[in-house]
Queue: 2 jobs
Job 1
Amino acid sequence: MIVRIIEFIGALLEGPLLGLGRIILLLGSTLKLMARPPFEMKSVVKQMLEIGVNSLPVVLITAVFTGMVLALQSYTGFKRFGAEGLVGTVVALSMTRELGPVLSALIVTGRAGAAIAAEVGTMRVTEQIDALEAMATNPVKYLVVPRFMSGIVMLPALAIVTDIVGILGGYVVSVLLLGTNSRSYLRATWDFLQVQDIYNGLVKACFFGAAFTLISCYKGFYTTGGAEGVGRATTGAVVYSSMTILISDYFLSAWLFK
Amino acid sequence: MIELRDVHKSFGENHILRGVTLRVERGESIVVIGGSGSGKSVLLKHIIGLLEPDRGSVLIDSADLSRMDEDGLHEVRKKFGMLFQSAALFDSMKVWENVGFSLKRHTRMNDSEIRDVAVRKLGMVGLVGIEDVMPSQLSGGMRKRVGLARAIAMEPEILLYDEPTTGLDPIMADAINDLIIKMRETLHVTSVTITHDMKSAYKIADTIAMLYNGVIIARGTPAEIRNTSDPVVSQFIEGRAEGPIILEGIEK
Ligand SMILES: Nc1ncnc2c1ncn2[C@@H]1O[C@H](COP(=O)(O)OP(=O)(O)OP(=O)(O)O)[C@@H](O)[C@H]1O
Ligand SMILES: [Mg+2]
């Protein structure tokens, strides 16, 4: 009976553990190959455009409305105990510490993570990855490294944009719509904001960028089963990346903002 | 020189290769024939190290592929050109970039030189004026020939062709046979070709080997194979539905 239970648990864990092992190996070879020439700069730039620049419109819209609703909600809430003066502080701290990095990461995952998994997965099932290897080109170096590097660079960049635009959105709602005094709103924004808040937010964004590109590449790399498999890989990439972002966000926050 | 020693490969329960032993001498042109699904493409992928044998070993110029690290394997692969059965063109790149991929990666040639080589190689497979087209816009036979041009672009020592004439009209197929012969005569390449096209096999082969039930059951010159007394081989090369080879699920 006990053997049965252990076997059952073992079977249950086999898939996830195998996946985790492969991701760690992929991370290892990605880091190793990143330091080695040739540095595929053209490829990196292309991926930066793909991941960063093309995500900008959605990220901007999300950021501005998040800042706006945050200001609106905290204003009406805080008014109950006469703390309207703190709206600016709440918006600034929430955006920089939490929403800037996390929201932009989730949005980019939905767009670029899905695209990465679909592209790499298609290359896998149509033997293009085999063809790369047959032509003495390391597919991790050629496909994963540029995406990974772009993720690490572009997510902090997008997080900064989200921070700024979100704070602007909050300002617009508070000052123009709710009639808060502009100077005291700005004071509330700046007075309690520390460089640490922004910096730690960017560290998180960096981590999210590494996580979602790695998971999406991994899903693409191990795609089997034709077009249906590519579909599964794409969904899997978005689901696992989003989960990883949300879960690791808690632990990173607990560690960074002690 | 290519040598396979007792190579076994399974996918799950599916035991595909069951002890393949095969030696290809330098400069030899060997053709592997065998039924659909018998593991010919799997065999070819073992030769270039895309698949690893479960048991047994693959040696290229006496060096065991399974003993090599990533870098060693890449060095060995630079000796190879491979045409995939599906052509496996990079669909994010133009035709000439596909053909010139290895040149771009492994030589110091600049883009315009690479393009020139690509255009020349495309000419050798009868494709003119398509260098700026994307692979998705090509017909099946054209894709095959672009794949062929890509395989020969670096003028490799060893060429692996997975069904080079499938999907081509008879005249084009014969022109490709001539190209394969020319590659051997001018560049002295060692080649392994998979084909179902017996006419092409007789024409390009020094040696024909037949893969059946996961092992090489026959090996000989085209003349020897043509006059074989083995009922399995003779059924196959004559393309008869009746005989010792059972087609599962097909009612007679
Ligand atoms: N990556 C793989 N995973 C699982 N099974 C595979 C894989 N590659 C090949 N197979 C199986 O191995 C068997 C042989 O495949 P292979 O492609 O070598 O056949 P083939 O002899 O080239 O046939 P054809 O002449 O139709 O191209 C098939 O049953 C196939 O399903
Ligand atoms: Mg095949």
Job 2
Amino acid sequence: MGPTKPMLDLERVRKVFDLSSNYLVATGGNYRDDPYPVWHELRAQAPVQAGKVHELAGITEDFFFHGLPEPDRPHFSAFSWDACQAIYRDDATFSSSPVAVDIKGGEAGVTNSLLSMGGSEHRRYRGLVQSSFGPARARWWIENWIEATVHALIDCFVERGTAELNVEFCAAIPVLTITSSFGVPVEQALDIRESLSRPDEILRILQPIVAARRDQPQDDLISVLVQSELTDEEGRAQRLTDAEILSFSLLLLAAGSGTTWKQMGITLAALLRRPARLQAVRDDRNLLKAAIEESVRWAPTDPMFSRWVTEDVDFFGVRLPEGSVMHICLAAANRDPQRWDHPDEFDLARPIRPHLAFGSGPHVCIGQHVARAEMSVAIAALLDRLPGLRLDPEGEPPALVGYYERGATAIPVVFG
Amino acid sequence: MPDSSRALVVAIDRDLCMGSGMCVMYAGNTFAVDEQTKAVIVDAAGDPEEQILTAVEACPTGALSVVGTGAAT
Ligand code: HEM
Ligand code: SF4
């Protein structure tokens, strides 16, 4: 591949990853305001309230995400650190699904997966891949997939002196990382991403790879899946079926590509709009970790996840009936003034403390160490290879947009 | 170097631990994840006390608890 030839069809990347495109407008992609002032007001009124997050914030449009629309259930939302943390830690009362998961018989889809399981079933499924996602495996991800992807993308624009980092860089890295860990060639990476709502199509692409790895395993994630054995309640070990592998794949593709793209864009936008802080990171690469942790605390790309209430319970002074949906506004918790000083400030000097951007409880993000590795390798490579990297003074500076999926608008930069 | 004779004593509940690796990310010289994907303590005073407390707080399933201070080994 020539150094200046784009690895991906950027027009297609732009379409798949445009927050205001058909793909993402349903989650509030057209939302342009800063949601945090209202979330502060709501948290100050009461930590737990009846209603959906966007409704309580005065938005009359219907937005969809985890736990929405669920028209036949009462809805509640939590805004304080203590309440959000308590919900995450009590997975017996606050379950990840209203019904049992049925991977083999049910319809294939992103939520028909370990995302919606509970208790020991969730642990058994998650346990199959957890070790491939641990901090000790970060180097495996970096050396096998992340580093090569990052540098190949920079090769495409390094000579040009300008780039639009959101699409040309941030959007491409996570989707290529996760699809290549599945053994999917670059040319098919976008076919996969575009087919998330058509599991049959993804199965068609993955099936030959799964068959090949069953014959001859390689050093990649799909081989981990085809070789792993699930031990059932009676202690019998069995290899995963195609339906189970598809379920894992759909979840990892959905959860791992859009999120990391948007968070990387948010991090870069925050730094580029604060040139003194960008310079500080350039001078002291240890600050990159602080910048990434602060970015996920300050502006998590997915500000809300939801749980289903399993029994009538009094919670922070509110009566929650069994069967209600509880929306965890983790972005509001991440700026709770009870926990953080000057919470609205993007501050690299703040002590690193746990936040809820990757959730908590047994469903805490399995990809968080991979996401951190992608963001730190990518941003470090930009700083190393693009001297004088700064926002294009002629361009529109990036803004953060979207409601239930937040991300940056275009990030036009110049360098050299 | 932190004084290991006064290190925090942290207990790990291996049934609750689901191998998230978050303790490793906040206090990587103190905790590691073993081959059964469960947390272990590699050096009770591997990190400053503050970082170890952060790791305990970070554990998503409450598998870590401080059970005292004292001679660690
Ligand atoms: C910065 C990027 C990311 C953010 C902000 C993020 C955020 C989250 C959050 C908040 C949850 C918990 C959902 C809940 O409470 O129900 C979650 C779960 C999950 N994430 Fe991530 N994520 C990111 C990157 C990734 C990556 C790179 C992968 C995979 C390669 C991934 C895979 C998953 C999976 C599989 C789950 C479900 C885990 C379970 O239910 O046990 N995520 N993520
Ligand atoms: S943070 Fe908790 S669950 Fe995660 S590895 Fe450490 S002890 Fe285990």
